[in-house]
Write a structure and sequence with these properties.
Blueprint: H1 14-22, H2 28-33, H3 42-60, H4 64-70, H5 80-83, E1 87-94, E2 105-111, E3 116-120, H6 127-134, E4 139-142, H7 149-156, E5 166-168, H8 169-175, H9 182-188, H10 202-213, H11 217-249, H12 251-255
Parallel strand pairs: 1-4, 4-5
Antiparallel strand pairs: 1-2, 2-3
Helix pairs in contact: 8-11, 10-11
Length: 256
């Protein structure tokens, strides 16, 4: 989808993008190889050609940082197909307070489509360990992470950096007309949770951490399972939302 995207160009919106598609200009290569485009001035065409050439080279080099900086946040979903093999899902649990009120992350879960890892407070959860793990990925997937998880981590661990494209499924789902949280979305998509944590929510995760701090190994185990379900399920949801967002653009009409 990213190679069909012209909204990365300054001054090109959704309507102009569709106009390009209607005129048979479906990819960056199509645009660059086209002569005059009667609804784009010669000066802009030259600048756009140069920009798309840079973007094409960055894509060939899998330069995720380039796209994190140069693609509007609302369009980061368009990079999913390119970077899905180098993507990681992230979800955090906290003690129920914000960082400026004594809040901290109790657990950070990461899932790359094959393996789940969790970093727990007092057992591997440091900014150094997180940065080392995240450095192996080129694409971040969260649910409401742009508004909560990432800002929370940056405020509580200032040395962390998130400089890769970020597909926030919460806002992606809203773009398709869906309203609701992660658990509601899972029901909508027919995704089942482990019976031991079915029906639990973020408040329950806070209470589980409190019980774990008081010595409950059972609570600690349930907290890990709860976070794993939150994190692992994001990959399947991302697949569905990406397909819906792609269909919503109307690009398939022009490719057929």
């Amino acid at each position: 989808m990213i190679k069909n995207t012209f909204s990365i160009l300054n001054g090109i919106g959704v309507k102009m993008e569709k106009r390009l598609w209607r005129n048979g200009i479906l990819t960056w290569d199509d645009f660059i190889s086209s002569g005059d485009i009667n609804f784009i001035s010669e000066g802009k065409k030259t600048r756009f050609d140069q920009y798309l050439s840079f973007a094409s080279q960055a894509l060939s080099n899998s330069n995720a940082e380039y796209f994190a900086k140069n693609v509007k946040r609302r369009d980061h979903w368009r990079l999913f197909e390119k970077f899905r093999g180098h993507a990681v899902c992230l979800d955090i649990e906290t003690n129920g307070f914000m960082p400026d009120q004594g809040g901290y992350a109790t657990l950070v879960g990461l899932y790359n489509g094959f393996d789940y890892k969790c970093f727990m407070r007092g057992n591997g959860l440091t900014s150094q360990n997180l940065m080392k793990e995240l450095s192996g990925y080129k694409y971040l997937i969260t649910f409401y992470g742009a508004a909560f998880d990432v800002p929370f981590l940056l405020r509580s661990m200032p040395s962390l950096q998130f400089d890769i494209p970020h597909f926030d499924l919460c806002f992606g789902a809203r773009m398709t007309g869906f309203q609701g949280g992660l658990k509601k979305l899972e029901v909508e998509f027919g995704i089942e949770r482990d019976e031991s944590v079915k029906g639990m929510n973020g408040y329950d995760a806070v209470k589980l951490w409190e019980h774990a701090q008081n010595g409950s190994s059972e609570a600690l185990g349930l907290l890990k399972i709860y976070n794993k379900e939150d994190t692992v399920n994001l990959f399947n949801i991302a697949e569905v939302i990406y397909r819906r967002l792609r269909e919503q653009t109307g690009i398939e009409e022009y490719l057929s």
